[in-house]
Amino acid sequence: MSGLLYVSNHPLVTHKITQLRDVTTDFRRFRSIVDELAMILAYEATADMNTQPVSVQTPLTVTEGRTFAEKVGLVPILRAGLGMVDGMLNLLPQAEVWHLGFYRDEETLQPVIYYNKLPADLSTHTCFVLDPMLATGGSAIAALDILRSRGVEKIKFVGLLAAPEGVAALHAKYPDVSIHVAAVDERLTNAGDASAGLPPGFIWPGLGDAGDRQFGTG
Ligand code: PRP
Question: Rounded to whole angstroms, how far apart are CA atoms 191 and 79?
Fold first, then answer.
């Protein structure tokens, strides 16, 4: 797999994503780990952010430092992306948060939009689209379609788990959008998995439904 795909190999990330996969991890702990992973991935995904020189008065003298030169918009995809917002904001407290709500139709697996709270002025921002799961890629692509139609140039996707199918779909339509995740799993479930009681379109082996597992609705 090539393109702008960054899979963290940090031991903290591999440890925490393993805890997320564990079916015995309850929703309070699950939420905490999503928050922790979002902060670590924020550190990695911001490695190429632009900075500009600034003078700073220390207790001893004036010296040169550097400060962020980019405005940032965090775009959580509801619901599951909500759990990644605080972790990102820990490192990017100046960021604006713009909510997009999609649910995935269970039959067609196509994203259906139900909420859009983008501000009027957003084209000058760097955007981080947040969603723990990149499965077919449909929800992320729908979010990117909206952001690009509003003139946003610099966009990154930050998630936790991706399927190869979702990475390929996102790269095919938006090859310039980097993808930052904790792990890429083997595949998506399909009709052949129905005999094992598994619905299609789930990341396998995965961690289940990230929204339900965060909010205790599973
Ligand atoms: C899940 C997940 C992603 C989407 C991924 O959301 O949180 O948003 O599906 O699938 P895709 O890549 O195939 O589009 P879901 O529709 O279950 O909604 P939820 O976040 O409210 O649980």
Answer: 26
Mean pLDDT of all residues in 38-58: 97
The reply to whether omega before 79 is within 30° of 0 (cis) is: yes
Measured from the CB, is residue 143 less than 6 Å from ligand 1? no
Going from N- to C-terminal start, the domains of the chain cover: 5-50+67-215
Q: 55: CA distance to ligand 1 center in Å?
A: 44
Instruction: Identify the residue whose C-alpha is closest to ligand 1 atom 9.
Output: 104
Distance CA 212, CA 79 (A): 9
Indicate which residues carry an active-site annotation: 104, 108, 209, 212
- CATH class of segment(s) 5-50+67-215: alpha beta
Residue whose token pair is 């928050």 = 35
Query: Looking at the predicted structure, is the pLDDT value of residue 43 above 60?
Result: yes
Q: How confident is the model at residue 3 (pLDDT cuts 50, 70, 90)?
A: low
- The token duo for 6 is 């960054």
What number is the average pLDDT over the span 14-31?
97
